[in-house]
Each structure stands twice: as C-alpha cells, then as structure tokens.
Design goal:
- The chain has helices spanning about 10-25, 35-50, 90-100, 105-125, 175-245, 250-285, 310-320, 320-340, 380-450, 455-490, 490-500; strands at about 85-90, 130-140, 155-175, 290-295, 345-355, 365-375.
- It is an alpha+beta fold.
- It folds into 2 domains: about 85-115 and about 180-335 and about 380-500, Outer membrane efflux proteins (OEP) (Up-down Bundle); about 125-175 and about 345-380, Single Sheet (Outer membrane efflux proteins (OEP)), CATH 2.20.200.
- The strands form 2 sheets. It has a 4-stranded antiparallel beta sheet, with no helix packed on it.
- Strand 5 and strand 6 (about 365-375) form a beta hairpin.
- Helix 6 (about 250-285) packs parallel to helix 10 (about 455-490), helix 8 packs antiparallel against helix 9 and helix 9 packs antiparallel against helix 10 (about 455-490).
- It starts with 7 loop residues before the first helix and ends with a helix.
C-alpha cells in the first residue's frame, strides 16, 4: 500500500511554532476556536501514526496469486520498434500480445517440441531401420604373405576391383524395454502439450494482473490529484485566515504540510505507474520506450461465486496442469516397466541385399538374412539400479499429482474467498470514501467560517486519503481475485472476459 507520510521537518516546524502561537494567542480564544498548540500537536502526531498503519494488501496472497508464477512469465520477446505515437492498449489487446510474445509461453512451447523430438527418437527403436551403402574396392593380394606358395604361379593377384551397392534392414521383433521407453516418451510429450496449454492461463493471469495494477495506479493518481486540490484550497483558506488575524501561524504550517505531503504522494504514485507500465510492457512484448495508454478501467462488477465443491470438480476436469501431472505419472509407470523389461531377451531380424561384381555390367545380386536373439546374463546390479531409480521417480510423480489435486482445491477455494472478501471490502471502503469526502467538505466549510481549527481539516484530509487508497486497493483485489478464479478453474485463457465482466 503506497501512502504519504508527514514530513519530519514540517512537524518540527509545527512544534517550534506551537509555543509562539500559544504566547501570541488572544486571551479569550473565542474568535478562532484555538484551544492550545500542545494538545493539537499531540493530535497531529497521533494522526501521523495512524497514517503509518498499513491498509489492505495490494496483492492477493492466495496460492493462485501472480506472485507465485514462474518469473519467466514476466518477460517476453520484443515485437517491433517503438513509435512516436501513444499506443492505446485495452486489456484484451494486452492479453493477446502476451499470448504471442510472452517468454514463459515461448519457453513452454519449446519444451513441447523437445519432448516431441524425444518421442520420435524412442519410436525409431520400434520401426524398421534401413540404410544404404555403395562401395568400390580396388585390391591387390600377395599370397606369399599368407604362406601360400604354388610353383609356377605368380603369388601376386590383382589388382582387381569389386563394386558393391547394398541396402541393410534391421527390425526389432521383440524388445519390451524399447516399447515401454517409447510409451514413457509419448506420455511425456502429452504432458508437455498440456503444460503449454496451461501456460496460456498463466500468461492471462500475469498480464491481467499487470494491467489491473496499472489501472489501480491511474485511479490512485486521479484520487491524489483531487486530494491535492482539496489541500490547496485548505492552504489558501489558512493563509487568508492568518492574514485576517483569525487564525494562528500553526494553521498555515499544518495546511502547508498537508499540501506538500499530497505533492509527494502524487510524485511517488506517478513514478509507480511508470514502473508498473514497464512491467506490463515486459510481459506483452512492447518496447520499453514505447508510450501507451490504458483504455480499460475495469470498475467493480459483482460475480456470483460458484459452490466450492462443484467448482473443484469442474477444475479437475479443466485444469491442464493436473492432466499434465497425470501424464507424467503414466510416463513414470512406463519407465519403471522399461527398467524391469531390460533384463528380458530381445529378438532382432536383420538382412541386406545388394549387387556385387567387378563392374555394374558384370555383377550379380547377393543377400544375407539373419536372426539375432540376445539376453543379458550378468547385469543384476545394473537392472536393480534402473528399477530403483524408476521406482523412486514413479513415487515422486504420484506424490506430485496428489499434491497438485489438493493445490487446485486450494486455488479454487482461495479465489472464492478472495472474491467474497474483496466484494465486502469494496462496499465498505466505498461507503468510507463517501463519508470521508463529506467530512472533509464540512471541515473545510467550518474552518472557512472560523468555527473550527485547521487540524480538523488536516485530519479529514488524511482520512479521505486513506479511504480512497483502501477503496482502490479493494477494487484491484476484487478484479484480480476474479481473474484468479478463472485460472483456478482452468478457463482463464478462454473465459477471462466473462469473469472480469461479472455475471
């Protein structure tokens, strides 16, 4: 929660002026309602302490919060170059840009391609392997070197050449280890595909949160500007009253502190908006020097929250990360079977056929057919180790799947609780804003009429500032909670408009 604090130097000035004002105050004190600087200073310090107390958190703390997402989803690949124009960006535009350029989604898509490549590699072990070879050999043989000597026969034979054009075929007939390894790679590929689909929901949640945060910053700037105008009015009233002799110098100092405090808040809030817009640009692939404006304001719209149990069952069917964890468990089961089958015999058939001779014109076809049965005999430690590793990986996959199911349950219930709580906060803080504005207006009128002190105006201004800040934070929390519910149900990438717009 970003809020302004009293300037320490100004408080010292108030303290220093208190004694002077007390000494110079009229004896009756009835003209300006001034009852003593020491008590007023204590009230001012108490007000400062109240302002220092934190308000509602700006970010939801649930498990579906954007703060728990992989940091890669906050980056992107920059698309295009910055222009001099101010680019209007709606929430839908931002999300669509994120779905094209977000780094987290791009990395997940690359992981999907990698898993597909590994699947194809394992598939090849089950398919026929055909290779071709062509060779020309020129050779001269010395029979004497081999101990072959025939009287009257020249031991040197050649030179002569042999041309050979041949194709080779290899096929696994029985290889249970290769078959289960392929099934494991296939399930891993399916898990990668589902994870890439789930990444789209995470992009929507990340980009949506960044956009809503910028909207909250813009609203806060408007509120601070209004408070700055009110504090300017109070400052002018205090100066006029002091020049007329109906108000002490302390009232002017207090009003000046309020005015400068609002100026500081406006500077800090404007700076925060600029930084949050940079974060949004990073997530959607905009050049950081590209100027853009937000066209959506996302005001409060109520959402009928579903029954938690029914929503949980719906989420189990729609959440792609749960389906991906189930596929990873199946892959681990297949890998464990592959480790067990590694000790079984394998049967392979191979052969070749080609044309062989001195020249192409003087050649003849030749072939070889072969069957190969092999079985491991003394690989006990290796087989046992493979099975232990695969069994441990299977236990881990099952544990992760079980935990993921519970995480989905927690995501759904957290989001529903956040929506319900934020909706109540919106109602309460909106009422507080109305009351604070009315109190501020009345305090300014009473001070202008000379029937109250400037401290009442200062306190009313601080209350108005806090009420506005809490109302803006409540609106932000409610919108992010609705977006988090869409993600918890697994429909953020397709139905986010429905949830942000309300039902």
């Amino acid at each position: 929660m970003r809020r302004a604090s009293w300037n320490a130097t100004a408080l010292l000035l108030i303290a220093a002026s208190a004694a002077t004002a007390q000494a110079q105050a009229p004896q009756s004190g009835s003209n300006n309602g001034y009852t003593g600087a020491s008590s007023e200073l204590g009230t001012a310090v108490q007000t400062q302490q109240q302002l220092a107390q934190p308000g509602p958190p700006l970010n939801p703390s649930g498990s579906a919060s954007p703060s728990t997402i992989d940091p890669s989803f906050r980056g992107s690949l920059v698309n295009g170059k910055a222009t001099a124009d101010v680019l209007p960006i709606s929430l839908d535009d931002a999300i669509q840009r994120g779905l094209r350029n977000n780094l987290g989604l791009i990395l997940q898509t690359s992981s999907q391609r990698q898993a597909n490549g590994q699947r194809l590699e394992q598939l090849q072990a089950l398919l026929p392997t055909v290779t071709a070879d062509a060779s020309i050999t020129v050779e001269q043989v010395d029979l004497a070197a081999f101990g072959l000597k025939f009287p009257g026969i020249n031991p040197i034979i050649g030179p002569f050449q042999v041309e050979d054009f041949r194709a080779y075929l290899t096929q696994n007939l029985v290889n249970l280890n290769a078959f289960q390894s392929y099934l494991a790679a296939k399930h891993n590929f399916q898990a990668a595909k589902l994870s890439a689909q789930d990444a789209r929901d995470l992009v929507v949640l990340t980009v949506g949160n960044a956009y809503l945060l910028c909207v909250a910053d813009q609203t806060r700037i408007q509120a601070v500007q209004a408070e700055l105008d009110s504090s300017q009015l109070s400052f002018n009233q205090a100066k006029d009253a002091h020049e007329a002799g109906t108000s002490p110098r302390l009232d002017v100092l207090r009003a000046q502190v309020d005015y400068q405090s609002e100026q500081q808040t406006l500077i800090a809030t404007t700076n925060q908006l600029a930084k949050d817009k940079l974060s949004l640009a990073r997530a959607i692939g905009l050049p950081l020097d590209q100027k853009f404006s937000l066209t959506d304001t996302n005001p409060f719209q109520a959402l009928d929250t579903p029954d938690p149990d029914a929503a949980f069952q719906q989420a189990l069917k729609q959440r792609k990360d749960v389906a991906a964890a189930a596929e990873q468990t199946k892959a681990a089961e297949a890998q464990k079977k592959a480790a067990f089958y590694d000790q079984f015999p394998t049967l392979k058939a191979s052969g070749n056929y080609g044309d062989q001779g001195e020249t192409v014109a003087h050649s003849h076809g030749t072939f070889t057919a072969q069957g190969d049965l092999s079985a491991p005999i003394l690989q006990i430690a290796k087989n046992r180790g493979e099975q232990e590793v695969a069994g441990a990986q299977l236990d881990q996959a099952r544990a992760k799947l079980s935990d993921q199911v519970q995480q989905v349950n927690a995501d759904v219930r957290d989001a529903i609780l956040d929506i319900q709580t934020a909706a109540k906060l919106v109602d309460a803080t909106r009422s507080n804003v109305d009351l604070a504005r009315e109190a501020l207006s009345e305090a300014q009128q009473r001070f202008k009429a000379g029937v109250d002190q400037s401290l009442a105006v200062s306190q009313a201004l601080a209350t108005d500032r806090q009420a506005e800040d809490q109302y803006i934070s409540a609106l932000y929390q409610h919108n992010v909670a609705k977006l988090s519910l869409a993600r918890a149900l697994g429909v953020a990438s397709t139905n986010y408009k429905e949830y942000l717009g309300g039902k």
